[in-house]
């Protein structure tokens, strides 16, 4: 059944719910999924009718292009429940836009706004009991698209599947995060796919990150691939540096993911009269600042952990510990942002969207 107008979502409800078996106080990130998922297939040059159905495994051709050539993209978003039981999304338009930019870069079809937005809304509505109230609780939303078309010829697939799955999340204290500055490995290169939220960017990071883990570091600060002199991202997050009282973050580029958290941090910093400069920070500058004591903070910014303070970094086998601050920019920004997301502070930016 093909729907060219795409103005309807079929809902097949699960006869049971696993919600009573979930320990919401002890969730590890991304391990538990709700009762339903959204599925929308692309065939013969068009999107078929989206269906919300019970969360379950599904069959695929062993020759499906995603397994061989990695045509796979995703988004990461969160839904929050306020004290009146209303559910809110945070800047979903930004994720929708970025999803289709990623699709274009990976030679995949764009997903219609109805399928992405209405799909999210109807799915979350059906699963609203899974969104827990209270600061730190959220429902993590994972829209993604894979190439399902069969055949091992190296060419873009003719068939795709767009899906949304949902996972209850609790804010976590990630423990101490120490990072290594990349001297050899790269996350992304000019002309590559670093600005797309493509699955392959993540698999490319696993091995260098494993090596860092073995040395006792949790993450890598990625540098530009050509010279390894410019600081670009921290793990799978955008990265900010505070030197004296100025906050710095690199401009987005072909190598840097245009993070929604990153741009929200920039806007909050501007509104709250913190000095912020969007420019590349050099590795040498960071080492110098660490040596002369002007380096105050480094933190990552991304949807999953929101703000992730970094306690120290290593470069060329030398380790630099960051000071422990009472009034850090990271904490101010994290509190401000999570209060907006959870409707505990006025959203002067118009970022929150009610479901
Ligand atoms: C997803 C992602 C981010 C963070 O983006 P948000 O929109 O803030 O979640 C940063 N860097 C990379 C490489 C990412 O994949």
Automatic annotation (TrEMBL):
UniProt keywords, alphabetically: Amino-acid biosynthesis, Aminotransferase, Branched-chain amino acid biosynthesis, Pyridoxal phosphate, Transferase
Function of the molecule: Acts on leucine, isoleucine and valine.
Name of the protein: Branched-chain-amino-acid aminotransferase
Involved pathway(s): Amino-acid biosynthesis; L-isoleucine biosynthesis; L-isoleucine from 2-oxobutanoate: step 4/4; Amino-acid biosynthesis; L-leucine biosynthesis; L-leucine from 3-methyl-2-oxobutanoate: step 4/4; Amino-acid biosynthesis; L-valine biosynthesis; L-valine from pyruvate: step 4/4
InterPro entries (alphabetical): Aminotrans_IV, Aminotrans_IV_CS, Aminotransferase-like, B_amino_transII, BCAT-like_C, BCAT-like_N, BCAT_family
SUPFAM superfamilies, per database record: D-aminoacid aminotransferase-like PLP-dependent enzymes
PANTHER family tied to this protein: BRANCHED-CHAIN-AMINO-ACID AMINOTRANSFERASE, SUBGROUP IIII AMINOTRANSFERASE
Any Pfam family matching the protein: Aminotran_4
Substrates-to-products reaction catalysed: L-isoleucine + 2-oxoglutarate = (S)-3-methyl-2-oxopentanoate + L-glutamate; L-leucine + 2-oxoglutarate = 4-methyl-2-oxopentanoate + L-glutamate; L-valine + 2-oxoglutarate = 3-methyl-2-oxobutanoate + L-glutamate
EC number(s) from the headed UniProt entry: 2.6.1.42
Family to which the UniProt record says this protein belongs: Belongs to the class-IV pyridoxal-phosphate-dependent aminotransferase family.
Group of enzyme by EC: transferase
GO terms for MF: branched-chain-amino-acid transaminase activity
Required cofactor(s): pyridoxal 5'-phosphate
Species of origin: Flavobacterium ponti
